[in-house]
Amino acid sequence: MQKSTKIKIIISVVSAFLLWNLISPCVYLITLANSYKNASHFYVGTLVRPGDCIVGAVIIITVAIMLVALNLVIWLYDKIFKH
């Protein structure tokens, strides 16, 4: 196996680990926003706001998409940039 392929596999494993760890906070924020929408009286006096939860979830999803795109560019670099 070539050295560059080993590096690509290591980057892919790290990316998969990061994506797996981004799922939980995103699901939590969406669940919290839904819970606030359905029973907002439980959150009176707290810092929980549904808008902030949704913005946080969108940021996490954006980071995840960028991570996947970066991983694809790394794997397809030779085909994309070197004709």
| Shape label | elongated
* Mean pLDDT, all residues: 84
Order of helices and strands: HHH
N- and C-termini, Cα separation: 23 Å
Q: Let me know the number of strands.
A: 0
Biggest sheet, in brief? Answer: none
Structural class from helices and strands? mainly alpha
Pick out the low-confidence regions. none
Helix content: over 70%
The count of helical stretches stands at 3
What integer value in Å does the Rg equal?
Answer: 19 Å
Features:
mainly alpha, single chain, 83 residues
Protein architecture, described:
The chain has 83 residues and is mainly alpha-helical. Helices cover 81% and strands 0% of the residues. It has three helices and no strands. The chain has helices at residues 3-38, 50-75, 77-81. The longest helix has 36 residues, at 3-38. It is elongated and about 60 Å long. It starts with a helix and ends with a helix. The model has no long low-confidence stretch (mean pLDDT 84).
Please summarize what this structure is.
With 83 residues, the chain is an all-alpha fold.
Q: Secondary-structure blueprint of this entry?
A:
Layout: H1 3-38, H2 50-75, H3 77-81
